[in-house]
Design brief:
With 291 residues, the chain is of the alpha/beta class. It has one domain: Aldolase class I (TIM Barrel, Alpha-Beta Barrel), CATH 3.20.20. The protein has ten helices and ten strands. It has an eight-stranded mixed sheet with strand order 1-4-5-6-7-8-9-10. Strands 2-3 form a two-stranded antiparallel sheet. The chain is globular and about 55 Å long. The mean pLDDT is 96.
Length: 291
């Protein structure tokens, strides 16, 4: 098995076999993201990917979950993804699920039938970086799509029978757009009704445009208490979710939370109220946070 550059995956894929099928991200213009700055986008040769799968079969025959990296592997053609998924299913008898990062652009570029094909071949869950429901914030961080496209993409994935996990980022709007970011993120997540929803907390990465904006004084980073207030505003609006697993268990977060929305909404808000009252003593120390 061969890996090139930094490889990331969602927290829920910690025990998965990570298989790189692409390098980098085909968009790679988000101002906050430094993950692939040193790695131009490239689709790996299918022959190399299949070789890695065969190697993994001998080293880890009991694999139950696989995550297809890098940043937006769903950009690959349906034919190529189907071949990779068929090889995984044939090679790992205990395989339960395959996961993948998916941009709204890539989901919208595929038909419901195409998404259903890869779902039938083992793709079980897609992870979408919403970041924010605010169109102003999305434009400022150069996400490349607006909230309407984000909602349409998730609805298409759900129509195809895929599980969907949506990820937001606390603080991404800075002080200026904090309230709008929270309000609009709540609105969009309600419209999506995802199976999973998590929020990370912004960490500024040297070398990124957003880091440079912060250094120049044009972007103002929220304090930890303001991050929690922003999270409180988001959760307070989540009233239309069917059975959504909610987490803030990423290493970047100051306060780990877990629950199911909407039934655990009041509990989550009460925990946040307590943390805001107690202050820094109950928060993860800054030195312990990570990407």
């Amino acid at each position: 098995m061969r890996y090139h550059g930094m490889v990331i995956r969602p927290p829920s894929e910690a025990n998965s076999y990570i298989l790189q099928v692409t390098y980098g991200c085909s968009h790679n213009r988000c101002t906050f993201c430094g993950t692939y700055l040193d790695k131009p986008f490239q689709a790996r040769k299918t022959s190399e990917v299949l070789d890695d799968i065969r190697t993994a079969q001998t080293m880890m025959p009991g694999v139950r979950r696989v995550f297809l990296a890098d940043g937006d592997a769903l950009v690959l053609s349906t034919r190529r993804l189907a071949q990779i998924l068929d090889t995984l299913r044939d090679g790992f008898s205990q395989l339960e699920r395959v996961g993948i990062y998916a941009s709204a652009q890539n989901l919208l570029a595929k038909s419901v039938d195409e998404l259903a094909i890869v779902r039938e071949k083992g793709l079980g869950i897609v992870y979408l970086g919403l970041e924010s429901g605010s169109d102003d914030v999305l434009a400022r961080v150069e996400k490349g799509v607006g909230s309407a496209e984000m909602i349409a993409a998730i609805r298409k994935a759900k129509q195809a029978g895929l599980l969907v996990s949506v990820i937001g980022i606390l603080g991404i709007g800075g002080m200026e757009l904090s309230e709008e970011h929270a309000q609009q993120t709540g609105r969009v997540v309600n419209a999506m009704d995802p199976d999973y929803f998590s929020m990370l907390t912004l960490m500024l990465v040297p070398g990124t445009p957003l880091y440079n904006q912060w250094q120049a004084g044009s972007f103002h980073l929220l304090k930890p208490s303001a991050m929690l207030m922003e999270l409180h505003r988001v959760i307070s609006q989540l009233d239309d979710l069917t059975q959504c697993v909610f987490r803030t268990n990423h290493a970047s977060n100051y306060l780990p939370l877990r629950g199911t929305l909407s039934q655990d909404k009041e509990y989550l808000l009460s925990v946040l109220d307590g943390a805001l009252t107690q202050g820094a003593t109950v928060l993860r120390p800054e030195a312990w946070r990570g990407l």
